[in-house]
Amino acid sequence: MLVLGIDPGSETTGWGVVEGEARGYRAVEFGTVKANPRERFAARLLKISDGVEELLARFRPDVCAVEEMFFAANVKTALKLGQVRGVILVAAERARIEIAEYAPRLVKQTVVGYGAAEKHQVQEMVRVLLSLKEIPQPHDASDALALAICHFHHAGLAALTKPSAARTKLDALLAANPRRRAPR
Fold this sequence. Notes:
CATH superfamily: Ribonuclease H-like superfamily/Ribonuclease H
Strand order of the largest sheet: 3-2-1-4-5
Largest sheet: 5 strands, mixed
Structural class: alpha/beta
Helix content: 40-55%
CATH class: Alpha Beta
CATH architecture: 2-Layer Sandwich
Number of domains: 1
CATH topology: Nucleotidyltransferase, domain 5
Radius of gyration: 19 Å
Strand content: 15-25%
């Protein structure tokens, strides 16, 4: 299973691709989509949308894990972040990619074990969990990798342990003919 984690931001949107299987997961690639803060906001949204669409086409993930909206003291910032999330969700939906949304507190709780963890703690645990030599930089990319890890812990591992379609078909055939046994 391939999960694209996205940490929305109106200037820097972090992304991280994590591949998982029954034995664990590994980082494939990570980075950011940067928008110039001097540009009109609509132009920044277009740049983010184009960047996310490019990532979806390039990696063809099974799931896109996006950070949910959190309550911000600044209403204007919260509205902008909501619009950034909107273009990300539309891009994923247009690509027919499953979307999973996780609250920032749940991501931190899952990755660090503490829902109010600080950025450097998340970065270090992402480094450890993905067996990376260095802390993923910038923190936006690290947060995106944490979202992908969170998805594996809350939804992805169950999908990874499901028997394959071929195994399910073989089991059905063997059940119909109990004299034959398949190797496990």
